Amino acid sequence: MTRLRSASYLSLLYVVGLLALLAVLAVFQYRWTGEASLAEQERMRQGLNESLGYFQRSFDREISKVISTYCGLPWSAVADAEDWQSPLTSLLIEAARQWQASATDPRLIRQVLVAAVTPGSQDSLYSFSADSGRLESVEWADDLAGLRNHFPPDPVMARQGGTQDGYQRRHLPSDFIIDEIPALVHVLSNQTAMRRRERTEPGTPITDDPRFYVIIRLDRDYLFEQRIPELARQYLSRDTDSGYHYAVTSRQNPGLVLASSAGRDPSGIIASPDARVNLIRLVEEGFEIRQRGQALPEAEDGHVRRRSLSRQGGGGGAPAIEAPDLDRAVHESSLERYRNLQAAAEILAARGWELLAKHRSGSLNAAVASTRLRNLGVSLGILLLLAVSLLVLAVSVRRAQRLGRQQMEFVAGVSHELRTPIAVICSTAENLADGVITANEQVRRYGQYILREAWRLDTLVEQTLEFAGIRSGIRRFHMEPVDLADLISDAVDALRTQIAEKQLKIEVSSKPGACVNGDAAALSCAIGNLLNNAVKYSRPGGQIRVALEPRAETIVLEVADEGIGIEAGETRHLFEPFFRGSNALRAQIRGAGIGLSLVKSIVEAHSGTISVKSKLQEGSVFTLVLPAVRVPSVQEKPEAT
Which terminus of the chain has fewer CB atoms gathered within 10 Å of its CB, N or C? Predict the structure, then answer.
């Protein structure tokens, strides 16, 4: 017993140690999950920036082809020519040819327009047809009416106050973007008109010269409904952690949303994006636009020299090129191209578009937090499962240990129960065989001893076999109407000897009609066990009451004794196999601990219930309730014909 108790304490200590280890692991898991979440957040942010970079380069590459194709042409020859339409048409034809040859998708450009703006007269608008290679005069469409508001008034130079400081000048606008259309506008500078104005005396009226604007109108449906969503699917939805909503806005007017994820309110994306990049940067193979000074060639006195076109202290970018030693005409053409591209790059750097991205979970931080909570929940769930498993294992071990202890007590009790009757039978038989007992009265008394002990053996063996059969499921009950009064009478008769030895008084009260549908042998065993326990645990000279009462649909059997009673905390274990009360153990009353468990199994097999009420040193009352069955009386049975 001491060894079992020590093993129980060791197992309990083992479980407590494992639970403490699980708690430590839970703390480390929480910290590791936090560190992993920070690393995951940084990885996702880098992945987002990388995806936006891919998006940016793919988009800007296509827009750059438009700009380099149309803005990089030698437009000065057109502006200085008297008949501007012929050279302009030739340049547009060349630009259309280059665009068709180099464009990823020519649908990006919807229309090429030329606006001729002359102060004091009506503005003219021409549409270039690539098929016919001609400029055709067109009316200002409704969606282009707002474009005219972007054309600044003509520079006016007049003498004010009679001093050189009185000149007022407005610089010609550079290239710009019309977001609403959308369109890219390239301004053709009129160098001849500007030189003529510089030579004009102050106060002399200036001849109005037309200004030209090349308007590259982009296809809005293709750009915003097809191309940008296609790039978003390619770069912003490649896997689960790079699933982002997007919005494209104007940097001139941040509230203007040009494109956004379908079915998504862009206001949340604009308010708090996870990342943003600029779009419409000038990117072309062969040169770079940088945000620092770059060397550009310039011809002077027939020679080529370099100078920086960057703005001191910041400003727009400029292309980096190394001009070869070419003749003046070729060099000036190349120089004009790169000046035009530099001007376009400066405008695009300040007035382009912006791509905003936000994780579809609400924000990148929210996505990481959600992933962390999910991982933490799974990890802690596993640890909790392990803890519960340990507790279940501990309970199972405790129950197994208790069951093992009870089984050992059962074996000891059964061995004692078997040894005592066998010892009595053997000693009595030996005396009879040796002729020690010869008187008839003594022989008869010895025969009663042998019969009593044999009955005790038979009862113990029957109980053990019945218990084993019911617990294993092998036992099958043969149901038939059974009168419980007859079973009670038989059980009392079987216990007459024990009742007489302890000088007990037994009172049996029953009413007719106490029939149930059941197995007679099993019910006889159950009633016999209840009566046997009442006799066994009663004090000498006590009283046992047996009451059998039929009710509406049940039969109630009560067996009450005035014995040693049961402790209050032990009644819930009373019907468990091999359990014996501490009061019975202290009184050294023999028993195997299977009788009441067997009674409960038999009663429940007959759809009944059993309960107990007990007070220590005052006695116990066992109540057995079984479903009643009505058996017709002799008068109710039909007569045979």
Answer: C
Query: Are 147 and 173 a contacting pair, CB within 8 Å?
Result: no
Could you tell me where the beta strands, DSSP code E, fall in 29-161? 109-117, 124-129, 134-137
Joined together, the tokens standing for residue 91 give: 């340049």
Residue 61 burial class via C-beta count within 10 angstroms: exposed 0-12, middle 13-18, buried 19 and up: middle
Domain ranges of the chain: 473-627
Convert 11-47 to b/e letters by CB count within 10 Å (16 or more is b). beeebeebeeebeebeeebeeebeeebeebbeebeee
pLDDT tens sequence across 328-386: 555 555 666 666 666 666 667 667 889 999 988 888 888 888 888 888 888 888 888 88
How many Cβ atoms sit within 10 Å of the Cβ of residue 191?
13
CB atoms closer than 10 angstroms to residue 601: 20
Contacts made by residues 311-315, CB under 8 angstroms, sequence distance 24+:
315/346
Cα distance between residue 79 and residue 340, in whole Å: 14
d(CA 211, CA 80): 11
Angle at 380 between CA 375 and CA 382, to 5 degrees: 100
Residues of the chain with pLDDT under 50: 155-173, 192, 195-196, 199, 240, 285-326, 634-641
Cα–Cα nearest to 329, from 354, 364, 304, 294: 304
pTM: 0.55
DSSP 125: E
Q: What is the DSSP letter of 435?
A: T
Residues 6+ apart with CB under 8 A from 40: 368, 371, 372
CA atoms within 13 A on the CB side of 523: 30
Beta strands in 535-618 (DSSP E): 543-550, 554-560, 609-615
User: Do residues 421 and 457 lie in contact, with contact meaning Cβ atoms separated by under 8 Å?
Assistant: yes
